[in-house]
Amino acid sequence: MIRAALISPLLLGACGVQATGDEVTRFAPDYQGVETRLLDGDLVQFDVSMTGARDQADVDAYAECAAAQYALIRGYGFARHLRTNVYEEGGVWRADAVYTISPSLPRGLRKLDAEVVVAHCAENGIPTV
Questions:
Q1: SS3 for 83?
Q2: Where does the UniProt annotation place the signal sequence (predicted)?
Q3: Residues with Cβ within 8 Å of residue 119, at least 6 apart in sequence
C-alpha cells in the first residue's frame, strides 16, 4: 500500500527548509560582516549585512549575536536591546542595531545574557564579532 504524506509548511520552517510552490530549498544564509561603533560609554551600534535571510528575524538574530559577543569581549556579561532598523534591497538584508552593554543585569524588556546568547549563536551557526 502506498501512503501519501502531507508535510506542514510550519514543520518545514522549523527544520530550516523553505517551500515555495513545488520547490523545497534549505536555509543558506551568507553573513557578510559586522561593523561596530562605540557611540558613548556603554552604547554600541552594530551594522550587519547578509544575504539568504528568510525574514527580518534572521537579521535581528545576527545583530544580537554580534552584540552578545561584543559584550563578552569588553568584559561585560549583559546587553540590552534599544532598537533595530532592518531593510532589504536587492536581496541584501541590512540592520542597524543599538545596544547597551553592562556588567550586571540591566533593566528593560529585551536583555541578553551574553554567554547564553553566544552559545546559542554557535549552536545555530550564526557568526559573532
A1: strand
A2: 1-19
A3: none
Q: Per-domain residue ranges for the chain?
A: 28-123
Report the length, in residues, of the chain.
129
pLDDT at 23: 53
28-123 CATH fold: Alpha-Beta Plaits (3.30.70)
H or E stretch covering 18: strand 17-20
Q: Using one digit for the tens of pLDDT, what is the confidence trace for 68-89? A: 999 999 999 999 999 999 999 9
**Lowest-confidence region among 15-29, 45-59, 74-88:** 15-29
Residue whose C-alpha is closest to residue 77's, from 100, 45, 101, 42: 101
Burial, 68: exposed, middle or buried (Cβ in 10 Å; 0-12, 13-18, 19+)?
Answer: buried
- Predicted pLDDT of residue 5: 38
For residue 84, what is its C-alpha cell?
533595530
Fill in the amino acid letter for 90. Answer: G
| Cell digits of residue 67 | 552584540
CB 58 within 8 A of CB 93: yes
